[in-house]
Amino acid sequence: MGISIWQILIIAVVVILLFGRGKISDLMGDVAKGIKSFKKGMAEDDTADAPKTIDHKNSETASSVNAEDQTKAS
Hints:
Radius of gyration: 31 Å
Helix content: over 70%
Distance between the termini: 95 Å
Structural class: mainly alpha
Shape: elongated
Order of helices and strands: HH
Largest sheet: none
Strand content: under 5%
C-alpha cells in the first residue's frame, strides 16, 4: 500500500497545473534567497560574538618609542 510512481507523477502534474512552472521557479528562487540571507546573518552573528582585544604597550616600550620620536623631531 505504498506510494507508486504513478501517484507521484499525478501529484506532480496537478501541482504544475495549479501553480505553473513560473510560480514554482519563482518560489524556489525566493527560498534560495532566504537561505543565503540566513547564512549571511549567521556568519555576521559569529563575528559579532568574537572577543575584541586591545593591544596594550608596556611602559618600557612606550617610553622608548617616545624617546625615538623626540630624537627624530630634533
